[in-house]
Design goal:
Two copies of one chain form a homodimer.
Chain A lengths: L3 H18 L6 H7 L4 H13 L4 E3 L5 E3 L10 H9 L2 H4 L17 H17 L2 H9 L8
Antiparallel strand pairs in A: 1-2
Helix pairs in contact in A: 1-3, 1-4, 1-7, 2-3, 4-6
The structure holds a DNA duplex.
Chain lengths: ~140, ~140
DNA sequence: TTTAATTCGGATATTTTTGTCCGATTTAAA
DNA sequence: TTTAAATCGGACAAAAATATCCGAATTAAA
């Protein structure tokens, strides 16, 4: 469904969100350890998220990554996915046709239409706040 | 969502299905041309489908690929997808955790659960007959 | 002011996916 | 029986994704 880079990005963003709620800035090493991802590769992913304004980075000693608390409910899963993987997963044709549409539908268009739309809605309505609240309430996990 | 190999596999299977309904056997070159795919790579994909019993191959001159007509309603999209990409798209965790489940759900488990289930049902209930009928009725296209 | 901790960014390496090539085998038809 | 058309399968090549390395820039704290 999503690339590894994207999975790391989602996990990292949630971890940063959870910590930002407690006003804790977290650095690359801590993030990578928490989400069991390769450090240097995770750095690349975090750079993408930073450039796209999804997370904030602070250079230097005591630096790291954080998200402004008033942004947590505005950052959606779709923002993260789009930054890293683009929007093809939930927008483009299931068979990869560039010209597949409602008027000229490919062989699986009507089967995928509904699922794509549900995925889109889900990604666009699930915020980092929702996800980090679930972690805080111990309804879900991030590290295993 | 699916690998290119899988997209080629789905397209090829539908094309073979459409032709099998008319009792026409089609060969690799014709298939690859129809679905605009690289010939040799498509050969590999067709071999996978053949080994998995989804399509039948006939060697030698006048050989090619076909599907028995009484099988068309029994071959589901899920059979093709599983053969080529495996079942991770519609079975495994959205974040890639091996131990994510209903009792120990990952951070996005409940968001993805519904979509994964819908995708699974769709793939398991859409047959090659359904898809080739739509092509025959010109409700959908395969080649563009 | 120096040091250590940190992100940034470019280069490189490895692995996986995608794609190509070609000889072996099979088989219908000339 | 020969030939041509086809699949099969192994080796190889290219591209993309994943992962690593390292020096530069930044900055808090000693």
């Amino acid at each position: 469904m999503f690339s590894k880079a994207c999975q790391y990005g989602i996990k990292a963003a949630i971890f940063i969100a959870v910590n930002s709620q407690e006003n804790r800035r977290v650095n690359l090493k801590v993030i990578a350890k928490e989400i069991s991802s390769p450090v240097a590769f995770t750095a690349k992913v975090l750079q993408i998220l930073t450039k796209n304004g999804i997370i904030d980075s602070v250079k230097g000693a005591a630096g790291g990554f954080e998200i402004k608390n008033d942004q947590l409910d505005k950052i959606m899963l779709s923002d993260i996915v789009t930054s890293i993987d683009g929007d093809t997963v939930y927008r483009s044709c299931g068979l990869g046709y560039g010209n597949c549409s409602e008027i000229t539908p490919c062989a699986v268009h009507f089967q995928f239409k509904h699922i794509r739309e549900e995925l889109k809605v889900m990604l666009e309505t699930t915020s980092l706040l929702d996800l980090s609240n679930n972690i805080n309430d111990e309804l879900t996990f991030l590290k295993r």
